Amino acid sequence: MGVSVLSTYGGSGLNVARLEVKIDQAVAGPGSGSGEETTEYGLNLLVGALANLGKIKPYGEARFEIEGGKQLVLTAGAYINLGAGKSTIR
Fold this sequence. Notes:
- The protein is mostly beta strands.
- Helices cover 4% and strands 61% of the residues.
- The chain has one helix and four strands; from the N terminus they run βαβββ.
- It is elongated, with a radius of gyration of 21 Å.
């Protein structure tokens, strides 16, 4: 049986989204307050794929944030083994 070149994965996680707006009192005037701060919590659902091409392992991932950030995040990159030892990424 051969080694799989492409592996897929999925998962979930917690999301913390924070927004902070500071207002300069010199611009807004006295008594305007110093700003607003909001923190939202949500859940991430993700799927991805990793290609095992030897020392270079390109990957792509799609993460959807349910609540909190409410956005789709697409990520792509590559793990590159620069050392002489074995890579821990399979």
